Fold this sequence. Notes:
By secondary structure, the protein is of the alpha/beta class. It has helices spanning 3-25, 36-40, 43-55, 66-74, 86-94, 126-135, 148-160, 176-186, 194-199, 235-245, 248-255, and strands at residues 28-35, 57-64, 80-83, 102-114, 140-142, 169-171, 189-193, 206-210, 217-224, 258-259, 262-263, 266-267. It folds into 2 domains: 28-106 and 218-267, 3-Layer(aba) Sandwich (D-Maltodextrin-Binding Protein, domain 2), CATH 3.40.190; 108-216, Periplasmic binding protein-like II (D-Maltodextrin-Binding Protein, domain 2).
Amino acid sequence: MNLIDTLRRGAALAGLAAAFATATVHAETITMASTTSTEQSGLFAHLLPAFERASGIDVKVVAQGTGQALDTARRGDADVVFVHDQAAEEKFVAEGYAARRSPVMYNDFVLIGPSKDPAGVKGNDIVAALNKLAAGNAAFVSRGDKSGTHAAEQRYWKQAGVENKGTGYKECGCGMGPALNMASSTGAYVLSDRGTWLSFKNPGDLTVLVEGDKRLFNQYGVMVVNPAKFPHVKAKAAQKFADWVTSKAGQDAIASYKINGQQLFFPNANQ
């Protein structure tokens, strides 16, 4: 064999080795149904590469409202669920779609609105604020998509005793980012998770008007879809993600995600 043939053979073998190495780095792919807030806030772009490096497991994210994400898992179209509506999550477990729910992290909801605050809602009482919005027929954009944020909003309206939300109330049936864009372009009020708000690039005249109410607490949880329901679910790989995101490495990765020096999510898996 001459030198050129030897070099060619060596290059071919190197190419095969590289291809094999690439194939083994991501030996498996799991599908995660999650909320739009974890995606649109930029958290997953920060978090998932760290998990993929640690595990060799690739994660495909289907970002939806929490209700839709749970329905995706109920159809067996996801291996793991990462959402933020504890009541709905506990129902999911009770129905047998997951063996357990594990807390992962939290942040809070905030009421966003025009800086001039024509409805006069500024403060730390979400119930009082919603009463003022309804009484004044203020423009309000609701996600209306059965997401965790939408579920929280509906819960606050109920706590406020408001049935008629006023003529300014509109449901967009959309994710958090589009809802914020609508509020920004129309000068409306909107309930948002803080993470998506801090990463939002088009605030216009909007600002945080109501925050600090303990009712605005926003907890996230992770659940592995039960393989007894769906034998094709990649439960072992999905469990590796659930274990990692609640481990010190995963919790540290969550805590380290910041925008302009502000932490978006606070790990609490061990609390």
